[in-house]
Amino acid sequence: MPLNEGPRQPGERRLSVNPFYGPANPVGDMAEAPPTHRLPDQPIAPATAHQLVRDELMLDGNARLNLATFVTTWMEPEAGVLMAECRDKNMIDKDEYPRTAELERRCVAMLADLWHAPDPAAAVGCSTTGSSEACMLAGMALKRRWTRRNAGRYPGARPNLVMGVNVQVCWEKFCNFWEVEARLVPMEGERFHLDPQAAAELCDENTIGVVGILGSTFDGSYEPVAELCAALDAVQERTGLDIPVHVDGASGAMVAPFLDEDLVWDFRLPRVASINTSGHKYGLVYPGVGWALWRDAEALPEELVFRVNYLGGDMPTFALNFSRPGAQVVAQYYTFLRLGRDGYRAVQQAARDVATGMAGRIEALGDFRLLTRGDELPVFAFTTAPDVTAYDVFDVSRRLRESGWLVPAYTFPANREDLSVLRVVCRNGFSADLAELLTQDLERLLPELRRQQRPLTRDKGVATGFHH
Fold this sequence. Notes:
This protein is an alpha/beta fold. Helix content is about 35%, strand content about 15%. The chain has eleven helices and 13 strands. The strands form three sheets. A seven-stranded mixed β-sheet has the order 1-7-6-5-4-2-3, sandwiched between helices. A four-stranded antiparallel β-sheet has the order 10-11-13-12. Strands 8-9 form a two-stranded antiparallel sheet. Strand 10 (about 370) and strand 11 form a beta hairpin. The protein is globular. The mean pLDDT is about 90.
């Protein structure tokens, strides 16, 4: 979560209240507006509080039109009802809510089977609040395994983690919080993610693992996990170093099993020790759930698992959080049960069809160059064509926002900081009709953009609030 500061101005603003918000007497019941940055002195009616909050939230963007986020913005009403019925259940209290705990266990077993664990019954895993927490847990397991193998050298030696510069920011946080050196493989030319051989060359006796991304947030492309494992096999043959791989499948781990069944990226590769995914991305659940799985108990050091006597029950737990609602886990099980393999395949194929179709139509406009086409993750990135000098991607993003579309524009990281792109994430609920409307709005804006004398963006660093 972002850190929030208090009011920056010394004076305090009060909420503006319509007298009709009062429950009975529009004069007497709302005589004083409540403050915004301190607790009101008196309670107000629930209907009034609801309306005041709702009015402020009207200024948020429309989540369904937010093509920056990977997070699910639509679920069936039945799922919403289940979540409402379970929001008061504390997920950590497995003794009091044993059936919720059982649904979590079933979800882990289903994912272990989906990701080809050698023995799904022996795989271990847990739900999390999202992929960021899941990545932290996976990184902790990698570091602890390395520490045990190097007990005579640690803490003198500094552990490192190898990954592409395109990783999500949670991996930078992990390295910072757990004092691990981040060794980043830069982008080069038209390669926008990790290169297996370059990653292998960064490994040494202090490498706790290598992270492969199944679906880069920068452009939607899959990293070549099998090739990465092969490169690390060669390192082991040459040096004896046995370096595990963690697959950050935040999005792709819920796409590839259904649409790219011949792609080998998961526990079929012996070097893959752990995998994470976001249930609230292409797992099709509202925000608040992720999953972390290890191929077997050996991959997750036992000393990291806490066994807590909580409300009368012995409860093993591996998490950064403790109390959290069971609603999202229940919703995940509902979605698995509701869709099955064929249903997930149909939903993800529909999203990919929307992405590839829309990418083709944008390319046909002539003003843009595609970096990816949405044929891996249902995500594509594009930039302005070389001969376009009157406007840039930041101008396009700003103008699309005028019509309600939230399409992020951003600059790529080191070695390709010269490249600025737009990215479109096609999720369940972003239909072919909505894609057509967005394309029409973009086409309608082009004549005005072409008449500009130059791009209007002065500071690309503050041109968008979007960050990976």
